[in-house]
Amino acid sequence: MSELRTFGWYAARVAPHLPKEAFQPVPSRLWGGLAYLIVAVSGIAAIGVFDLPVIVNIAISIVLGLCYGGIGLFAHEVLHGTVIRNRKWRDIIGAIGFWPLCVGPKLWRKWHNMEHHIHTQHEHDDPDAWATLEKLQKKPLLRKIYKLPMWLRTVISFTLLSVMFTFHSSRMFKTYINEFKPKDRPAVWMQLILPWATWIALLVWLGPSKWFFFYLIPLFIANAIVMGYISTNHRLNPITTVNDPLANTLSVTVPKWVDVLHFQFSYHAEHHLFPGMNPKYFPMVKDKVKEMWPDRYFEMPLTTALAALWQTPRIYHNHTELIDPETGTVYGTLGNGLDPNNIEAKKPEDKEATVPIYSKVKNH
């Protein structure tokens, strides 16, 4: 990998080649969010009011899951200020979009817009960065988990994608709640409590069997959709000391109709270059970036990225390598020897890493 550059360095060189309207909000995107909201409310009402056959409830659950995931991606776009600028309405619309996933707009801006975007893939400062070998050594529970065979850990981790966003957002609440000013904390708490209170109230009112179909199954699907993107956005890329979006972020490709449904969330390197730009214009950004830095830009089909995740461990070693701490097997990262189409172990830069972590801890 060549010298790392900041996202501002890239943005300053790409921006002059883009039209002025690319830096303006796109209110017409609200129609997409409204469509998801109408379908979601209709689906909840259908299951709640009618005694439908199980097969119909399952079909509606799948549609609701797609809606919950899609409207969550819409909320992400809104809370970046790329749809409307008015902060009050951004918060209201963003809260509605994240209601199924139970994430408040104030927490999201702190966790995602500020911490993740500013410190992307920083070993210590990015709240979404995966663990390093050094961190793993300090966490006995994780060390026990990583004693499991890699294939079993992979099955478990992919299964947990169906709940991971919900669990991680709860962890982010615990991490950041005390960093809000005292006068803002009640609002952050309310933005957490109200969505959960809504879903629990519906559970009590309509009963667990209906709730299972209109919330629990769709929640699993929504988590899987969101985490399918999030997991591939950065976890094949290296840890970086400089926030270089072309080094630490991956764009994936999906069918055009999926891009429409998911508000162009697949253009993730572009998003990290211009987080305040509406994704409608990301194809332009992509074309210019590939023209200017073709050897630095990473993209692949989403299915290929997921397959690469399946075949590689999730612990970082020396920032640019992924290591299985049980066997010491090392793999590269994007730009550092990882070929997604031909996953092979590599010789580690640090020969000490070939010794299983548990042996090293015991010896110490």
From TrEMBL:
It comes from Ectobacillus funiculus. The chain crosses the membrane at residues 30-50, 56-79, 150-167, 188-206, 212-230. InterPro entries: FA_desaturase_dom, Fatty_acid_desaturase. It comes from the Bacteria. This is Fatty acid desaturase family protein. Keywords: Membrane, Transmembrane, Transmembrane helix. It holds the Pfam family FA_desaturase. Residues 56-300 form the Fatty acid desaturase domain.
